[in-house]
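FAQ: What does the model actually see?

It sees only this:
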Amino acid sequence: MDNENKSFTIAENKKRIFDQMASMHFILSDKYNFQSKSEYAIEITVSILLCGITFLDREKFFNISADITTLIIGLIAIFLLAFTIIKQNMNHKQLCEQHRNAGKVYAKAKLELAGMIAEWLINETDDKSILAYLQEHFNSLNDLPQIPEKYFIRLKHAHQYKVAKSKYLDNHQGEPWIICNLKFWLSGIIKK
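And it is asked to produce this:
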């Protein structure tokens, strides 16, 4: 039974890691989605500005010579071209999709593993079968996009904060959300 406990511990640990990885990927997906939408908004705004000032009688409204306005329009056009090329190379939209899909895969794996753990407990499955199942079904997760090293600690902290806050909210269901947020934040400060 001790070995079975070890295999269940390994399975539970894997489930916890899948939950953490799903959170991390979803956070990165949201980050890249925000960056992609911001870049798109800047690109559209500068394009509209460029179109607008192209047809505007600048000498009449701003008392600027034609040479200076041509230079300004040229510089804005060069900025827009450079910005567009850089945006395409950074490819935040594709990174958003990759991390969203990876998050979905990890979330599905966590749910599948939770169901299997319950089944194993009911059927008193031996540890060799459990470990074989884990090896067989979850090795393909290594092919998913990896969490960049520079974000790992911050994302792990965000996940652990989310889990702790979720547990806190479970114990304070009758209180308004804003009060729960304040109390949870203060409880973290007071403990230190």
